[in-house]
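Ligand-bound model needed. adenosine-5'-triphosphate.
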Amino acid sequence: MAEPSAVAPMLQVRGLEVHYGGILALHGVDVSVNQGEIVTLIGANGAGKTTLLRAISGLQPRSAGSIRFQDKEIARWPADRIVQVGIGHSPEGRRVFAPMTVHENLELGAYTRHDRKGIASDFDRMTALFPRLKERLKQAAGTLSGGEQQMLAMARALMGRPKLLMLDEPSLGLAPVLVQEIFRIIQEINAQGTTVLLVEQNAHQALTVANRGYVLQTGQVLLEDTGANLLNSELVREAYLG
Ligand code: ATP
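Prediction:
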């Protein structure tokens, strides 16, 4: 008989609370991500998905709770140390550096690294993964289309060679053909060994590619299950799949 897995989750968030002034945005959230998984967070606008990613990245202070990554308690660490330990974050709204070229944006993604050969090989990997960026390396990032800026934000986060890549709404506002491409790339990134935590409005696509998912509602976890079970759940169908 198979032994139950004794391996701790790669990321374990427990009892996380975040306040904005007097408003409690996350009320004791428990979320975990195992190595190798794609885990998705779905929920309506304002449910707290972005806040959760920002708290994990050290960009938003928490008021209570624990965040463990590979057995280290990181909840009080500064954001740059969290990047160094292996958590990459591609934020909502394609925050690329507009006046800088695509090439320069990618180089910035590797700013915490010193392994020149590794950086060069990851640069080649990014241009293979995102051929649209390869054609536009000398172009100012601000002149890219929305979909291309989204790809650049993802590629820049990957240049830090994260163990866990957190993506906030990567398909938001994109044409359907680009949405397909983004989801294909997310699966490819995962197949190449990167664990993924994905926030998405596009619940159907996200649950289709995810091993597991969480439904957040007003700062709390309402449901947690496999992607397949959530896709078939009546509540999810009614509330999030339209
Ligand atoms: P969306 O998809 O709209 O970004 P979300 O699920 O990511 O939604 P959050 O952006 O995390 O939700 O917001 C959670 C709650 O915290 C909301 O009620 C929001 O109004 C509030 N909030 C978020 N950022 C701030 C802020 N900087 N100041 C005050 N309240 C905030």
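The chain has ten helices and ten strands.
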